[in-house]
Design brief:
heterotrimer, A alpha/beta (251), B mainly alpha (326), C mainly alpha (305), A: Rossmann fold, 2 domains, 9 helices, globular, C: 305 residues, mainly alpha, two-stranded antiparallel sheet, 11 helices
Chain lengths: 251, 326, 305
């Protein structure tokens, strides 16, 4: 296997008495979709925050593109090529869809220290923004403030922002949340093609999507990785059934 | 789009009105109104400065009077030394050239904003408000107790400083100068807002977590905005000192900081001409009600309370609707 | 410079710090429970002083005035909370700052309308006139009483919060609003009570301090801003932080004003030393605040995370 793009080595994080993430090691190889699943409270959100840089681990190391990023900020990791989407859509509410994407593009292009040239006439932002919105199917909604977009459109704009960063790895936190059957089906198809651009670390509750997309699955329970393997291996794993899939079937 | 056009019309009306009123006063030989319009222009300029930090960047600085006062004192101190002929320090002399004074005023207020901003921006929200207020109070007390330049009594500027090609002692010419500087500052504000810097700054105000997730570090952008903001308010302070030919610690009281925020709120937070509308309303209120009752601030308080509770967009928001960033 | 003089200044600093604590405690409670920044807290300090001075003048008793001042501030606080402040919970800080700034304008002018433009004078109660011999130093009885008052109030406040039902509700309110709703507590009433409690503390401080300075419009805001410094140093929402911060600010400010001009007198000529010393002394506590910010951005005793 090629060198992983992203590697977690023995990462732990506690909040007071709660050990949210304990000694987690996992990796993301080029071209793969690595899904993280687990019941609520398993530590998925904390783990995502650790990878994105929103939280600093108490122990362990995070290596991204061969570099130790454990002490780097969210913005620094993003500039290195970590493209993330949020579990609950987190956009710039007053900005139109287009300006949201343009913001990501300007950050990608290096810096925001241009004081005079208007962004509305900046072709190096306008043109790629149009292309990215077309790819996610939001061309018709480009001028609508993101606060006024529908839930599904906001989920797509989240993906568009990650795309705009031309990342070395995607970090997608429940992209399917609240998308509906048809939306989920379309997005599944889209993400399937995306792995060719950059590998995806995917947290997702929708098991159909996970089983359809994932090359590898890691199961988190009680802050630990209790199983890791291919779709078939995870389906067959007894621990996983007990900890997680059993719940799903019962629900 | 309709809103945008309506805002531009409103801006044009405000810009023309601010010029037409003193022009008419010049015609009718009413110098009082020329001075009043100059005051509006300079207060609006100070407001434009604060609007960068507060309106675009969402940094509620309750200490912008510090930069206003620093600018004022730079003008006062340089003029004082130019007048007395005593060197300032290290053999440097004072100056009676506005351009020199403005440059120094902007440099020193920028420096103060850099230090205060770097410390205050380590925190956010309510802490930021209290800390900016406290640092402004520190500079206020320093000015009050430092005896060399008048302390509590302030420092007069005996002769208004000079500007090439103008007779600044004439009210009308002083107004035109202030108006021109205000328009330049508004142009700068509009450019900053439209450029990448403004895009990043406004994004940080609305959703810092998202800005960071696309790779924009908030601290540097906010600090830069804070410094530019303090610099423009400092320039306004220097000009106000010229207008009143007097500087005193009163320029940096917490009330002055509050007034600057009020100017922006009355006009409309983050709106290009918000400070112009706000300064106009404030000065008009002071003149109209100040003539009727010595307790006019009581009524200002009521109006302000009403605006905060019921009309949050200020005058421009009321007339031109909400702002959009297409 | 004798030991007695230093001790006297030290006591002055403690007394000043305890009065600041009364202000800061109310501010920090209101922030901790309701998440509100209240600039008009200084106006409540002023109301306490004015009502105390006016009532003491009529009734001929400082103590009657003190009770009246405290009650008036609490009543004004409750009224303000019901009419205005209540609408500000959940609004952003800018709205809170502006609305409470508007309240300062209204209350200051309101007091001026009622009591006229001139300062009022409040004299120290007869029983506390003069000085008391503490062995090393003769110290003002009244200021000693203020120290006693401050300590007693701090203990009372601590007992209130740690030991009573109201205190349990306040502490619950600081950690989780939904939880206190679930406990069946009427949040509206709780908020009004907490605000009135903070107002009463501010009014008491105003009335007590009113006897050693002139009672005038605008007396509250400088104290308010110092209370902000106290909170920044102590950590917002923390009563313990307010106490530690208040004592630090009180003592350092007082000692700085006392010692710095004398220190500069060793190297500069007297007139200059007084000026430079006084100017730098006025900046000391803000330097302290900046240091705390650099080392502990959330204050010495952060209450929230």
């Amino acid at each position: 296997m090629a060198d992983p793009v992203l590697r977690l080595e023995g990462v732990s994080k506690s909040f007071a008495a709660l050990r949210a993430v304990q000694d987690v090691s996992l990796s993301l190889a080029p071209g793969e979709i690595h899904a993280l699943i687990g019941p609520n409270g398993a530590g998925k959100s904390t783990l995502m925050a650790l990878v994105s840089g929103a939280l600093a681990p108490d122990a362990g190391r995070i290596v991204f593109r061969g570099q130790d990023v454990t002490r780097l900020s969210v913005a620094q990791r993003a500039r290195m090529g970590l493209g993330r989407s949020f579990q609950v859509s987190s956009l710039i509410p007053e900005y139109s869809a287009r300006r949201n994407v343009m913001l990501a593009l300007q950050a990608r292009q290096g810096h925001s220290w241009r004081f005079f040239h208007p962004v509305s006439r900046d072709r190096s932002l306008m043109d790629p923004a149009r292309e990215i919105l077309r790819r996610v199917g939001l061309s018709g909604r480009a001028s609508v403030p993101s606060a006024e977009l529908s839930h599904g459109e906001r989920r797509l704009l989240e993906i568009a922002l990650a795309l705009a960063l031309q990342p070395a790895a995607f970090l997608l936190d429940e992209p399917m949340a609240g998308m509906g059957t048809e939306g989920t089906r379309q997005l599944t198809g889209f993400l399937d093609g995306l792995r060719a651009e950059a590998p995806i670390l995917l947290v997702e509750h929708d098991m159909d999507a996970v089983f359809a997309l994932a090359d590898r699955i890691s199961v988190l329970a009680g802050g630990r990785v209790i199983a890791s393997g291919t779709v078939a291996e995870i389906r067959a794993d007894a621990d996983v059934r007990r900890a997680y899939l059993g719940e799903e079937e019962g629900a | 789009m309709v809103e945008k056009r309506r805002e531009w019309t409103l801006n044009a009306v405000l810009a023309i009105a601010l010029f037409a009123v003193p022009l008419a006063a010049l015609w009718l030989d009413e110098p009082f109104y020329i001075t009043l319009a100059t005051r509006v222009a300079i207060l609006a300029l100070a407001g434009v400065g604060l609007n960068i930090a507060l309106g675009l960047g969402g940094m509620v600085s309750f200490g912008h009077a510090a930069y206003f006062g620093i600018g004022g004192y730079v003008a006062g101190i340089l003029a004082h030394h130019a007048f007395s002929g005593q060197p300032l320090f290290l053999g440097l002399s004072g100056s009676n050239q506005m351009l020199v004074i403005w440059a120094v005023a902007m440099a020193i207020s920028a420096l103060a904003a850099l230090v205060i901003g770097a410390l205050s921006l380590r925190t956010s929200g309510i802490f930021f408000i209290m800390i900016t207020l406290a640092f402004a109070q520190m500079i206020f007390y320093f000015a009050l107790s430092w005896p060399a330049y008048g302390g509590e009594d302030g420092l007069p500027i005996f002769l208004r400083n000079q500007f090439p090609g103008l007779n600044t002692m004439r009210g009308w010419e002083m107004f035109v100068l202030s108006y021109a500087v205000l328009m330049l500052a508004l142009a700068l504000f509009a450019m900053l807002r439209g450029a990448r810097f403004g895009a990043a700054l406004m994004a940080i105000r609305q959703n810092p977590a998202r800005a960071a997730a696309v790779g924009i570090s908030p601290f540097g952008i906010k600090l830069t905005a804070f410094v530019i903001s303090g610099m423009i308010t400092g320039l306004a302070g220097a000009m106000m000192a010229e207008l009143t030919r007097f500087v005193s610690p009163a320029m940096m009281t917490w009330q002055m900081s509050g007034e600057l925020i009020v100017i922006i709120i009355l006009g409309g937070v983050g709106r290009l001409f918000g400070p112009v509308a706000g300064a106009g309303i404030l000065v008009a209120f002071e003149v109209l009600f100040g003539g009727l009752t010595e307790h006019w601030q009581f009524f200002l308080g009521l109006v302000l309370l009403g605006v905060v509770l019921f009309a949050r967009g200020g005058l421009i928001g009321l007339l031109a609707g909400r702002e959009r960033h297409g | 410079m004798s030991l007695a003089l230093i001790l006297e200044q030290l006591l002055n600093g403690v007394q000043f710090g305890l009065m600041l604590f009364l202000m800061a405690a109310g501010l920090t409670l209101v922030f901790g429970v309701m998440g509100l920044i209240n600039l008009a807290h200084g106006s409540l300090f002023m109301i306490g002083a004015f009502v105390c001075a006016a009532v003491a003048g009529v009734a001929g008793s400082f103590w009657v005035g003190l009770v009246a001042g405290l009650a008036a501030a609490a009543a004004a606080g409750a009224l303000i909370e019901i009419l205005v402040i209540r609408r500000l919970y959940g609004r952003d800080h800018l709205d809170q700052v502006l609305a409470t700034f508007a309240l300062i304008l209204i209350l200051s002018e309101g007091v001026r309308m009622i009591f006229g433009p001139f300062p009022l004078y409040l004299s120290v109660p007869d029983a506390l006139r003069g000085t008391l011999d503490l062995g090393v130093v003769e110290y003002s009885r009244y200021r000693l009483a203020l120290i006693g008052f401050g300590i007693a109030t701090a203990i009372g406040l601590w007992l209130l919060i740690a030991r009573t039902r109201l205190g349990i509700r306040i502490r619950a309110g600081e950690s989780d609003r939904e939880m206190i709703a679930a406990l069946g507590v009427n949040i509206r009433v709780l908020y009004t009570v907490v605000f009135a409690l903070g107002a009463a503390l501010a009014g008491m401080a105003g009335a007590l301090v009113g006897a050693i300075q002139s009672v005038q419009v605008g007396m509250g805001e400088p104290v308010l801003i110092l209370a902000f410094v106290v909170i920044v140093i102590g950590g917002i929402g923390s009563i313990k932080g307010a106490m530690v911060g208040a004592l630090m600010v009180g003592v350092i400010d007082t000692m700085g004003r006392f010692l710095l001009p004398r220190a500069f007198a060793l190297v500069l000529e007297p007139a200059q030393a007084t000026g430079v010393g006084a100017a730098l002394a006025s900046m000391l506590i803000y330097v302290l605040m900046a240091l705390v910010l650099v080392l502990r951005p959330k204050g010495l005793f952060p209450a929230h995370g």
